[in-house]
Amino acid sequence: MGPLIVFGVIVLLLAALAFDGFFIVRTKEAAIIERMGKFVNVAHAGLHLKVPLVDRVRAKISLQIRQLDVMVETKTKDNVFVQIPVAVQYEVVQGSERQAFYTLSNHEQQIVAYVQDNVRSSVANMNLDDSFSSKDTIARNVAMSLRDNMAAYGWNFVNTLVTDIRPDARVRESMNSINAAQREREAAVAQAEAEKIRVVKEAEGAAEAKKLQGRGVADQRKEIVEGIAQQYELLRAAGVEENPETLMLVSQYLDAMVDVADRAHTNVLYMPSNPGGMQDLFSGMRDTLLSTDAINSAPKPKVPAGEAKHSREDAAAARRRREEKERRERDERASRDAEVMEQAKRAQQQAQEHVQNAQQQGFGNMPGFPTPPQGNAQPQSARDYFNQLRNQLNQNNNGH
Fold it and tell me: Does domain 65-167 have CATH number 3.30.70.120?
C-alpha cells in the first residue's frame, strides 16, 4: 500500500512538472522569460518550452498600438489659460521588448511629462488666436519630442493629435461676442453698399427720366409754337388781319374748357367768383366773336400802305375807346347793384326795428302801425299775421 502511494505522488509531480514546462503566447504579445530571476529571452506568439521550476514567464507585453489621452492646462502669450487635450498613439518596437519592460517603471507617466512640457513651451509663444490655427504645429512638435526622447526605451510613437483648444467659458463668450460684432459690422457694410448702389441707380434713372421728360416738353412746346405760327399765317392768309391773335386766344380758351370737361379727375376749375366777373367774361367772348365775324364779313378796301397804317392806328384807338366804354358801363352796373343792396339792407333794418318795437310795446300801441285784424279775420299763427302785415305795408307804399 505504501509503495503505491509513493508512486502516485511521483506521477502527480511528474505531470505537474510536465505542464509547467509548456506555455503559450498569443498574437501581438511578447513574453518576458526569466531564469532564477535573470532575463533569458523574449517569447513571441506560439507554443514554447521552459525549464520547470527554474524558468518563469515574468510578464507579457502587448504589441498593439495604444492611445494615451493627456489633458494639458497652460497659458498663452496674451495671458489666457487654455486646456489642450492631446491624444498620443504609440507601440512597443518589436525586438526592443526588453528595454520597454525593464528601462521604465511607468512609461505612461513619462509620456505625459514629455507631452506637457512640449505643449506648454510651444503654446507660451503663441497668442490665443494663433494657437487655434497652429494645432498641427503643436502636434508635430510633441511627436518629434517623444520620438527623440522615448526611442531609446523601445517605444515608437505612431501619431500625436491635438484634438481641441478649450479656453475659459468667459473667454469663449467674449470671443463669440467679438465674432458676432464683426459679422454684424460686415453685414451692415454690405447692406449699406447695397443701399448706396440702389439709391445711386434710382437717382441715375430719375435723372435720365427727367432729362427725357424735359426733352419731350421742349419738343412739345416747339411744336405748339410752330402750330400757333402756322395758324397765325393761315388767319392772315384768310383775310383776318385785324387782331387775329384774339381769335386764336378765344379758340384756345374754348379748347381748354372742352379738355377740362373731358378729364374725369378734374374737380377744380378757377372761374370768376362774382356775377359781374362772369358777365364780363361772356361779354368779352361775345364781343370778340362778333368783332371777328364783322371783320371777316366786311369788305377789304385796297388802300395804300400809308393809309393802311393810319387805319390800323384808328382801329386801335377805336378798340381802346370801346374798352373804356365797356369799363364805364361795368362800373355803373356795379354802383347800381351796390345802391340796391344798400336799400335792401336799410329796409331789412327798419323791418327788424318794427318787429322789436312790436314785441316790446304790443302791435296795437304803436303809432302809425297797422292794427291787427279783428273778429273772424284774426290770424291763426305768427306767419299769417306777418303776411297780412306785409300786404298792408305794400298797399300803403302803393298809395303814397
Answer: no
